[in-house]
Design brief:
2 copies of one chain form a homodimer.
Chain A: H1 19-32, E1 41-42, H2 44-51, H3 55-68, E2 71-74, E3 78-81, H4 86-112, H5 124-141, H6 145-163, H7 166-179, H8 192-208, H9 212-235
Antiparallel strand pairs in A: 1-3, 2-3
Helix pairs in contact in A: 1-3, 4-6, 4-7, 4-8, 4-9, 5-6, 5-8, 8-9
The first copy, chain A, binds a DNA duplex (30 and 30 nucleotides) through residues 18-20, 43-45, 53-57, 59-60, 75-79.
Chain lengths: 237, 237
DNA sequence: CTGGATAATACTGTATCCATAATTATGAAT
DNA sequence: ATTCATAATTATGGATACAGTATTATCCAG
């Protein structure tokens, strides 16, 4: 989890983030880039020197990363970059599929205006989704994986926002953050880009039909499909 | 999340927990007991003095608690105990219901031996569940809420273990930890004990019939039922 | 008596320092 | 030469000290 609190994110947005938070961010970047490789020992003094800071804020940052699961703290033995096994993926993806499926379901309900209280959301929201999807189509056609990846993230984020459940979003974000440890990008697999696009279309179609259950199912399959692609990628990189 | 890493819990069980971890635990206890009330400011120096330690490990502990969502860190303004609103409960319980429902589903599948690879788990596991349930029945009859509460926790834990998905368990544990901020115990509500018991019976019955979907549904309803009880408790305490 | 500016105070954030435990290197004995 | 014991080194965990900023108190003006 982020240092910002999950639900009640008390962000005085103009307040400069504390040093330990900046350090945590820098470390995340390095870990994701495998510049700090999985299993690698983290040299506190070395990094502190390199960052030009003392060990104190660095160690606080490590506590945060440990809570996120990006590093493992071994008492009296130091800190190591977390490594996630095949088994972890097998356990994580189904859960992620469950959560994201629920997001799709809720988002669809919200769009359909079936939710009590809130009332029907403007269809502007749907066009926003459609807009992002159009981007996906374009980037896929151009085989621009990086932009596709970015747009894909925006798509899922937009959906989460639509679903309007902060806790649900939080758990998904936490999970995805952890998953980024693999760095392997299943989109690079041969037919995966096209396949992913097709799955997105199916999700969007279900939402358009205001079929929440179908949207959930399609999203669920979409995530598991990502898992399968990743598995293939790991056997033949 | 806990300071122990979610998946790869590196616990050299005989290693004494670091001081910051012990401190975190003491703070959790105080927070749950509302000895540190929601919204209250946390006096670092004061607590450090009281615990007979320096501010360093205390601050590290606070970072951990912040990651768990139990406290909120405001840059340059200090640390405050998190307060969760009615809306948070409305967002959290459905997610918890989803997750616990999945646990029931997976556990049932495992019991039924439908899972590939692992093979049918010994029916000893089911009798263990049944045993815990018998305890629940007894404590309910005796109106021993505390023991009922404890046995209830064991029941859910046993189920999680059966389901065998560590990530799923982790998310549930995180969520429950956060929920404990309310401290309000829905079991204290008038007919809730009996009702909860009935729901447990339904869950167990579904599992016995090896009906995973039904088990999931019953568990789902069980959790949401807990939410409803809590809501009632908050209007008329 | 109220409002605002300035000074005093207190607390957070960071750096430095020290003690202790773990690891590695060294040496002696079998 | 191998193995065990012991010493040296290094890193972690914790305490203390210091700087900078937010908050509170005080005082003066209107």
């Amino acid at each position: 989890m982020n240092a910002r609190h999950p639900v009640d994110a008390a962000k005085d947005s103009l307040a400069a983030p504390a040093l330990y938070e900046q350090v945590a961010e820098r470390l995340r970047t390095r870990i994701y880039a495998h510049e700090l490789a999985p299993g690698a020992w983290i040299d506190e003094q070395g990094l502190a020197d390199e960052f030009g800071i003392s060990r104190t804020p660095l160690r606080e940052a490590l506590k945060v990363l440990a809570a996120e699961g990006l590093v493992v703290l071994k008492p009296r033995r130091g800190c190591y970059v977390a490594a996630l096994a095949e088994r972890d993926l097998d356990e994580i993806f189904p859960v992620l599929a469950l959560l994201e499926g629920r997001v799709a379901e809720e988002a669809t309900r919200r769009l359909a205006g079936l939710e009590a209280g809130v009332g029907p959301l403007a269809s502007a929201d749907f066009s926003r989704l459609a807009e992002i999807h159009a981007e996906l189509e374009r980037h896929a056609a151009a085989h621009d994986i990086d932009r596709f990846f970015a747009a894909n993230q925006r798509f899922h984020s937009a959906l989460q926002e639509l679903a309007g459940n902060r806790w649900l979003s939080q758990l998904i974000d936490d999970t995805r953050k952890f998953l980024k440890l693999t760095r392997r990008d299943s989109l690079r697999l041969d037919g995966r880009l096209k396949q992913s696009l097709a799955e997105h279309r199916a999700i969007l179609a279900a939402m358009k039909k205001q079929d929440a259950a179908a949207a959930a199912l399609q999203m669920h399959n979409h995530i598991l499909s990502g898992r399968a692609a990743l598995a293939k990628l790991l056997t033949q990189p």
